[in-house]
Amino acid sequence: MSRLVELRDTLFLNRDAETPYGHIFVVSAFGGITDLLLEHKKTGNPGVYALFRDGAEAGDWRAALNAVAATMIDTHSAILTDEGDIQRASTFVTDRVAGLRDCLDDFERLRAHGHFRLDDQFKLVREMLSGLGEAHSAFVASLYLGDAGLSTRFVDLSGWDNGPDLTLDQRIQAALSGVNPARELPIVTGYTKCRRGLMTEFDRGYSEVTFAKIAVHSAASEAIIHKEFHLSSADPKLVGTDAVHTIGHTNYDVADQLSNMGMEAIHPKAAKMLRQAGIPLRVTNAFDHGNPGTVIDDTPAPAPRVDMVTGLNVQALELFEPDMVGVKGYDAALLDILTRHDVRIVAKTSNANTITHYVDSTPERLARVEQDIVAQFPGANFSQSELAVVAVIGRDLGGLRVLTRGLVALETADVVPVAVQQTTRNVDAQFIVPRTDKDRAITALHETLVEQARAPLRRAA
After folding, report:
1. Phi, psi for residue 61 in degrees, rounded to 5
2. pTM above the 0.85 mark?
3. Are 51 and 108 in contact (CB under 8 A)?
4. How far is the CA of 361 from the CAs of 42, 345, 364, 367, 451, in angstroms?
5. Domain CATH code at residue 156
6. Consecutive H or E run containing 360
7. What secondary structure does DSSP assign to 175-191, as a single string?
8. Domain limits at 440?
9. pLDDT (tens digit, 9 = 90+) per residue, 257-296?
10. DSSP symbol at 148
11. Residue 434: inside a domain, yes or no?
12. Quick check: is 248 in a domain?
């Protein structure tokens, strides 16, 4: 969204099409805004919400909120060219920030008394702050594209006017009831206020859930996610731009595996909605105009093929207990602890007396997990180690001997795997390697399983 000016003619106006209409655009916040409102997604640095939740001085969260407002105004001032539009957008920001500040002040006064249990209300604060970023970007986009000659409509699903308590489906249906995409371009907020709380249920994937719900509601022929990059066979920065290729066509099984590896093409709950409705998903590079990108649907693979090689740093949590042999309950107890601390499991292996979970979580949560495991299994040996899961993913890996050829590739690259596994579904194979060897493993596996497989195609071309 921060590159809106670049996309005006190629994406929104779509000069190559007969009409720029016939689409519903669901937008996320401008770059970095949600991090400032909540907390930084990668570093964890506190934003307005984190400062407020953790009981920082009122001046701290107020200053952070003012900084967000200033950043928003700077952002849209660099995009909009009409002074009247800049003023309207700035007023939009200041009005909403003032309303949020009043709400947080009221909450602060209640919290100071100590008579109120407000834990659940923090979730509502997070919801309110989440909606601000998307409302701002959608409002600015509708102004900017309107100046370009389009008939636009700002569709605010954030529930700023409060209104009735609606479900996700009800709010979307009500907001789109008077919209005619054939004659106007709806610019819709990625955040939707709903009864269950979109952020509470889906966290940062909420905009994709809104997007999928709208696609299903409107019976879309296709759902398109515009990214800043192609869905490629590997990270081009790692293996080289000449070595990778756009996947082109894959299925929702592969999308699920990518999500598991922290490379979400789309939130898995959103993918499920589209899949059940029979709506294909297209992932494109918004800045590579004319490239069709990658279609994701349920079409069977015409032939076995590796689509992607990717990797994720994980922490291996290993429980060794000789008394485990033939005894039930260890697995369930470990899963209960990991679930209670909201730890995401990437992969898992087990044998007669050892269970290992490869997880993606923060050091703080893992410290609490270790305390609980040691307390529940005092006679067991528990250990943690820093590893990486390197996954080879494809619609159909049958007959490709991925494990055998992969192990040879790793041996050639002087990478010694800690563990390997492949499920009977033949969608992915996982190589667990030392974290320091992750990039080397990805490069070696991509060269053997993707580049060499495509070499005859290049020669034939």
Report:
1. -70, -30
2. yes
3. no
4. 12, 9, 8, 10, 33
5. 3.40.1160.10
6. strand 354-360
7. HHTT--TTTSEEEEES-
8. 308-460
9. 999 998 877 888 999 999 999 999 999 999 998 899 999 9
10. T
11. yes
12. no
